[in-house]
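Let us begin with a simple case.
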Amino acid sequence: MLRRHVAAPPAARPPAHRRERPPRALLGAAVAVAACAALPLVWLVVRVAGADPDRVAALLLRERTLTLVVNSAVLVAAVSLGCLVLGLATAAALVRVRLPRPGLWWVLAALPLAVPSYLTAFALLAVRPDARGLGPLVAVLVLACTPYVTLPAAAALRAADTGPEDAARTLGRGPVAAFCRVTLPQALPAALAGTLLAALYTLSDFGAPALLRYESFTWAVQAAYEGTVDRTGAAVTALVLAAATLALVALERLARRRSGRARASTTTTATPPARLHPVATAAVAAALAAVAAVALLGPPAVLTGRILAAGGVPVDLPRLAVAAGWTLLLSGAAALLAVAMALPVGVLAARHRSRAVAATESAAYLGQGLPGVVVGLALVFLSLALVPALYQSAAVLVFGYAVLFLPKALGAARSAVERVPPEAEEVARTLGRTPWTTWWTVTAPQALPGIATGGLLVAVTAMKELPATLMLRPTGIDTLATRLWAHTSLGAHGAAAPAALALLVLACVPAALLVYAGGGRR
C-alpha cells in the first residue's frame, strides 16, 4: 500500500511588500525630505555650538532663563490640567449621553481648532482691556486646545469595552461610579496623548502670550530676535525651547503608542448612549453649548459689537481682499508642498520596515517639535547665509510652513496608504504594470481622500501661523494674521476687527470640511 506523502506547509513569510527593499528613488526622496525637516534644528545646534561657550553658559544660567522655564512650566501644567478635565467631560457627554442632533455637537467640539488663540485673546482684551497674566491666558488656551483631548478621548470611549462596567453595575455600583472606575480609565491613555498635544501647542504659542503680556519662551525668542543685534541670545533661548518641545513630542508619541495598544487589546461592545431625564439632558446640552459659544461665537460677537459700538469702522476692502488672497495662496501652496514632501516618507513607512525607514520617518516628524518662532529664526539666517536672493521671499515662507506642518500631512499620508490593501498592488504588478503605474492606477485613487485631509489640515493651520509669518513674509505682503497682529499690537481693536472676522471665516471653512470628512456628522 502506497503511503501518501503530504508536504509540510511552507513557513509563513512576510508579505512581499515588507521583504522587498525600497526603491532607491523613493528612499532618496524620503531622506531628502527628512534632511529638510531637520535643517532648522541642525542650524540651531550648529549656531549655538559655534558661539562662545562662556557666553552660552551665561545665557543658560541667567535668572531670566530660569524665569522663562518656570513661567512656561506653570503655563503648560495649568493648560494641560484644564484641557484634560474639560476634554474628558466633553468626550463623555458626546459618547455616553443621548443628545438632540448628536452630529452638531461633534462639529462644535472640533471647530475651536480653527480659531487662533491670539484671536480669542484679542476678543478678551476688547471686552476687558486689563486682562493680563496667567489666569486669562490659561482660559484662552484651554478653549483653544481642548479639542486635542476631546476627539481622541471620544474615539477611545466609543471603542471601550463596557462589559466590566455592566458587571460593576450588577455588583451595586451606580452608573456614574461604574463609568468613572471602569470605563473611563480605558480612555485615559488617548486623553493623555491629546493632553500632551495641548501642552505642545501651549509651549509653542506666541500670539496669545504676547497679547496677554505673559513672559513665555516664544515671546522671549521673538523679542530677542527683534530687539538685539547679537542674535546669540535668541538662538540659545530658541534651542532651550526646541529641547523642551522635542521632549513633549517624545512623550506624546509614547502615549499614542500605548493608547493604540490599549485600543487593540480591548473588545468593543456596542453600548447606546444613555437616555437621561429631560432636565439632565438639557443641562448637558446647555453646558456644551456654553463652551462652544465662548470658543466659537465669542470672538466674532465681540468683534462685531466693537464695530457697531464705534458706529462702523472704515475698512480698506481692497487691502483686506489682497491680504485674504495672500492667506489663501500661501496656505494652499504650503499644503501642496507639505503633501508632496510627505508622500515619499509616508509610502516608505507604510510599505517597508527597517531601522533606516524608522529613522527617516522620525526625522521627518521633527517639525512637530519646532515652534514657528524657532523655524522662522533658523530660516532667516539660513536664507541669508546660503541663498541671499531668497531672503524674505514667498518661497522661504512656504517652505517654512511645509517644515512646520509636515507631520500633519505625513500622518495622514501614511494612514491613507496603509489602508490600501497591498494585495491589490501585488496583483497589478503580476499583470505587468510598473511600480509607478501601479501607484497612479491602484494606490493613489484609494489613498487620495486621506491625503487630501492632511492637506486641508496643513492649510487651516498655516492660515493661523503667526511668528513664522512675521519673520519670513516678504516685504510689503500682508496676510490676515499679520494685519490682525499689526493692529492689535498697537491697541487698535476696532481696526483689527475686519481682518479678524475674515481670518475666522477662512479658517472655519477647511476646518468644517475636516470634521465632515472625519465623520463628524455621526
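The second case is a distinct protein. As before, the sequence precedes its C-alpha cells.
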Amino acid sequence: MRPPVLIVDDDPDIRESLTDMLGHEGYLVHSAASGTEALQQAKQTRYDAALLDIQLPDLNGLSVLKVLMELDASLPVIILTGNVTPENTIGSLAKGAFAYLTKPYNSQELKAILRRAVSVKGLTVRAEHVEEALQASEERFRALVESATDAMVLADQSGLIIWWNGAAERMFGYTKEDALGRPLTIMMPERFRAAHAAGVTRLAQGGTATIIGHTIELVGLTKTGDEFPIELSLASWRASDGMFFSGIIRNIARRKRAEESVVRLSHQNALILDSAGEGIFGLDPQGCVTFANATAARILGWSAAELIGKPLAPLLYRIANGNAARSPDPFCLCAALHDGAVHRIQNEAFARKDGSLFPVQYVTSPIRERDRLVGAVVVFQDISARKQQENLQQAQLSVSHILAQAGTVEEAIPQLLHVAGTMGAWDMALLWQCGRMGDQLTCHGSWIRPSHRWDEFLSVCRNSEFPPGMDFPGIAWASKLPLWIPDALTDSRFTRAPTASRLGIHGACIVPIRTGSIIHGVLELYTEQRRPSDSHLIQILADTGMKIGQFIDRTRAAQALRAAHRTTQSLLASLPGAIFLCGSDLQVQYANALAHQYFALPGESLIGRPLCECLSLSEPALQRQVVEWNTHTADSPHRLSECECEVAARLYRYRFFPVSTPESPQYQVGILLWDITDDKRLQDELIQAEKLSSLGTMVSGMAHEINNPAQAILSMAELIQEEDDPDTVKQFAADIVGYARHVSTVVRDFAGYARAAGRDGETEIDVAERLLEAVKMVRRGPHFGQVEIATQFDAPVFLRARKGEIDQVFVNLISNATQAMEGIGCLTLTTGQDGRWIQVTIADTGPGIPASIRPRIFDPFFTTKTAGKGTGLGLSIVHKIVIKYAGTITVESTEGGGTTFRLRFPALVQ
C-alpha cells in the first residue's frame, strides 16, 4: 500500500514538483494550497506524514501544525520554510514538528527525512495497536477486580471447586452447576494434572507452596477440550474449617498474539532499517550508539555489535586524525543532543575501521519523547560516487577551458596531460602524435605525478616510434577505439614491459585522439595500480580525445584560413584594378593597395569613408548604380553595366559586383575600377580615324553639295557686277544668301561628325532623332543613290550616352547598308522599348552577309572591301561602343535576303 502524504504549500510549482518527485518514490500524494484546505483533508484522511509550509495565505503554518497534532498526535509533520528564524525552526520543532527543511531544500535530504518520518509513523501506529491490546487486557483485569470479569475460582484443601464466577463459565465452558464440587484438574490439560495433584498433597501435609503469591502462565482447558494460555494468580488462606485456595485466571491468548505482533513488528522495523540505502545510527543522550543498521556497519567496516554502546563521534574522529586532544565531536554528530535542532552537513569525511576516509553528507535529528530529549538519529550517505562524478565533470570543463584559451596544440599539451592524468587518478599521461610521414607515432608530451620517479620509462617512450598495430598506441591507432588494460605487464603486446616491470607500472588506458575516422594521435595513461575496466571513465576519456581532435581540426583549419587570407590579400593587392568593398551604407570596408594608390593621399586610409567621396561620384549617380546591382540576379539576361568616372584628371571605368559571404548576412557591394585614360585616348583616336575614313568615302557627295551652291553664288556675284537695277541686284543677293546658308549647313553637319568623340559629354539622346541625323549624313555620300528610307518609330525613347559615339554607331551601320544595296533598295529603321531595354533595328534588302564570314565581322581590321576602300575598324568600333553602354548587338542575315542589325541598350531609370 502506498503511504499517503499531505503537501501544504501555496506555491503551485513547489506542490507540483514535490507531487511528481514523491509520486515517483511510491507515495500517495495529496496537496493543499492553504491551511484551511489542509485541515479539511486531514479530518477526512489519515496521513503517514505531512510537508507543511510556514507561510500560508490564510493561516499561520504553526497554527496549522497545532491543529494537525490535535487531529493526529502521531503524525510526523516536516516544516518547509524559507524564513529561517528561531520561531520557524526551533519553535516548530518545539511545537511537535518532526523536522524542518529550509528552502531551497535538498531533494535527497527531503527523501531521507520523509522515509524516516513514514517509518516512525509506522512504528507509532503498530505500537498503538499493541498498547491498545495491552490496555484492553488491563481493563479486563480491572473489570475482574471490580466486577469479577476474569475467571475467579475458589477451591478447598482437596482441590475441589467451591466457587465459580460467570467469567469462569464463559472462559472454560462449564456452568456453575457443572463445575462446583469437581476437581481443579478439569481446567488443565492432562499433562499438568499429576504435578497439580502432587502439589495439593504436599500442601495438605504441611509442605510449602512454590507458586502461591505469584502470577504464573499456564495452559487452560475448556469443556470442549480446547487449550488456551492463561495467567494465574494463586493465593491461599486458612480458615477454621481448613485451607482454601483462590485463583484469578485471565485468558491471555489475545495478549500472546499482541506480543507476537510486537516481536514481528520489531523484526520488520529492523529489516526496514537494514534495507535502507543510507547508514542510520541511533544515539542515546550521551552520544553512544543504540542501534546501527546494516548499511551503516557495512560502509564503516564495523559490525553492528562492535558499534553498539560506543561513543560514535570520538571513535570516528580518533581513527581519522589520531589526535584525541581535539574536540570529541568535530563532525557535529551529537549536536542535536545538545541543542535539540536538526543539523545537515553536506561535505564531510568519515573514517572506516581500516582508517581510510570517504566523503559523506549526513543529517542528525533529535528524538523526543513527551518533550524530553531522549536521543538522536544520524542518517548519512556515502557520496564517493557523486564526488568522483563531480571531479570528472570539473576535469571535462577544464579541458574545454584549456582548449578555448590555447592557440595551438603545443600550448595546450602540458595542461591537457595534467588534467587527463588527474581524470581518474592516473600516475602518468603521454601524448603520441603522427609523424611527418603519417606512418609512425612519436611521443610529443608527458606528465608524471610528482611522487613517482618514472623518468626511465619516459625516456624509453621518447625514443620509440610505433606504426599502426604495434604496442598499445599503435593498436589504438589501428582500431580507432579506446583500449583498457587492467595490468599491462600481463599483456604480450606491451613492448616496453621490462622497464615498466622494474618501475611497478600496471594499469593502462589508451584513447585515440580523433575526429570522425581521422586519427590525430593517441593519449596514453598509466597507474601503478591494477585497475578493472571502468566503462564510464572510458567514455569520458574518449570524449576528451574527441574534443582534442576537434581542437586540432579547428587549429589546422584556422591556419589554412589565415594562409588563404594572406594569399587572397596578395592576389587582391597584385590585381591591375582598384577594388572597394562596401556595406549596405556604402561605407568603404576594404580597399586594396591600388585603390589607395589611385584615390588616397600618401599615408591616408580609405577605410570608413563614403564611396562617393572616394570616387568623386554624386550621390544620385551612385544610388542608381547600386539599384541596378541590387536587382541583378544570376538569371538576369545581361551582365552588370560598366560606367566611367573622372577623378583627378584621370578617367576610370568601373563595374559593381555582389559580395556574398556566410559571415555577412547583409548584402555587400563590391566595385572594380581600372584606369582607362590612355586606352580611352587611343580609342577616341581610332574612332576619329574611322570617322575620317568614312568622310573620305563621302567627300564626293560633300563636293557636290558645296560646288553647286558655290557655282551659283559665283554666277550671281558676276551678274551683280554688271547689273544696275537695284531690285535685280537685291534679288541676286537674296539668292546668294540662300546658297551660302546651304553650304554652311552642309559644312556644319560634316564638321560635327568629324569632331573628336572625346569632346562630347554624356547627355540624354533621342534615339530616333539620331537615326534620322545619321541618314541625313550618309545621304550626302556617293553610295546612297535611290535608297528608300522606311521608319517605324514608337513613342520617343532616350539613351544616356555621348552623341558623337552613338552617331558613329548609326552612321557606320547605315553607310554599310547603303553600300551593300549599291544605291537601290529599302532601309528600314525601327525603335522601341521593351521594359528596361531600348531596341533599335537597322534592316536592309541587300545581298546579305555570307555565313562563313559572319562570326568575324566585329573583329578589328577585318573587311571584305578592296584595298584602300576600308579600314576594317567600323564594326569593331561599333561593337566596342555598344558594349561600353552595357548594350548588345546581334546580326541576322540571309544570303540574297538582306541583313538586320539589332541593338539593345538599357533604358534610363525613371
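Residues 107-147 form the longest helix (41 residues). The domain at 682-906 is CATH 3.30.565.10 (Heat Shock Protein 90).
Keep these points in mind for the review questions at the end of the chapter.
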